[in-house]
């Protein structure tokens, strides 16, 4: 049965792989993007999730085109890496505003329709960095760790309406961002991963799609690592 799916930040990398996974399963998929070009084959809406009005307008457009959102995947995220003593207030707050507060906005808006339908799936994309920490990424790690507490609170609030909320925590994924690293940097990263390689975006996407499936109806408040064993024990 085709569902209305929304992937926040779905125009490239992990987000695009997630959008394609749902589309391949027959769902109606909308994606939001802040910059760059919209991907072909999806209901694509430009939206900056740091702007509450843009979030509201994006939802209205998506609801008109494919109905209330039944599956929400919150994937948007930015980095402003810097060591703590060099990190500016703006470096810190801008990352939290997008990665954490922006997620709050899109989840709150999606939950309206889900509560009326007494059904829904919410999946938040965190990071192994939110569990392990990373030098130079205090802002990013804080925002991604915050998603765990946020998701588990939402899981408790909305569970009685058959709405699940889970977190996927990817490790190092083979995307344009990591391909820009030097061979030496890539080698050091892979050396930390027990499986000895980067994840493919599709491997993250398949985990997200499982959490949104009927088979995962009794899973909520979970944090699922897709990190090759990098963060085990956290």
TrEMBL record:
Keyword match Methyltransferase: no
Biological processes annotated in GO: fatty acid elongation
Documented EC number(s): 1.1.1.100
Binding residues for NADP(+): 9-12, 75, 140-144
Active site feature: 140 (proton acceptor)
Enzyme category, top tier: oxidoreductase
Domain annotation Ketoreductase: ranges: 3-176
Catalytic reaction(s) noted: a (3R)-hydroxyacyl-[ACP] + NADP(+) = a 3-oxoacyl-[ACP] + NADPH + H(+)
Listed pathway(s): Lipid metabolism; fatty acid biosynthesis
Physiological role: Catalyzes the NADPH-dependent reduction of beta-ketoacyl-ACP substrates to beta-hydroxyacyl-ACP products, the first reductive step in the elongation cycle of fatty acid biosynthesis.
Subunit-level organization: Homotetramer.
Protein family (similarity comment): Belongs to the short-chain dehydrogenases/reductases (SDR) family.
Protein name: 3-oxoacyl-[acyl-carrier-protein] reductase
